[in-house]
Specification:
By secondary structure, this protein is of the alpha/beta class. Helix content is about 50%, strand content about 10%.
Length: about 200
Amino acid sequence: MPITAPTVVFDVGNVLIRWDPQIVYREMIPDDEKRAWFMQNVCTAAWNIEQDRGRSWEEAVALLVASHPEWEAEIRAYDERWHETVPGIVDDSVAVLGELKARGEKVYAITNFSREKWAECLIRFPFLQSFDGVVVSAHERVIKPDPEIFHILLQRYGLAAGDCIFIDDSAKNIDAARAVGMKAVHFVEPIDLRSALAAHGVPF
């Protein structure tokens, strides 16, 4: 019997679409030290990830404005100017996704993403609608690297972990995928994604 190629599972942020919140804040807070303080103490990664876990942007902004009223404009910009922090796609990765789909492969995604921004990105980036299944953290209220989010994908779509290869830019997420039995590619540019996938049995 022919050997079946692994099923490719993509992360989205900084694998298929670029995201960098510094884009907005380099303009709003030109001073490097002041901007670093703001990102570490006001609009922190820990605050942002709660939107990926399902908290609404309205609630998130209100909480920070109440705590840091002097930074209200900058806090609201994280939500209101969010699309400026997503300057475009990762061209080669989107091309690889298109090639897999064009030859009839089933392709999936697991992404840490807020409910509101995901809905907007489905419109802005139509290729995100081409997956055969997507697990969005905000919809499930669980975020990578929690192994539960990987099990949700496997159970919902009838996949076996050993038959999947997961692509993510986060080392913690890669470790989590491997821990549940998936193969994995750590996406760090510059990377030849086709060669990395081919090394795990995905033909290109």
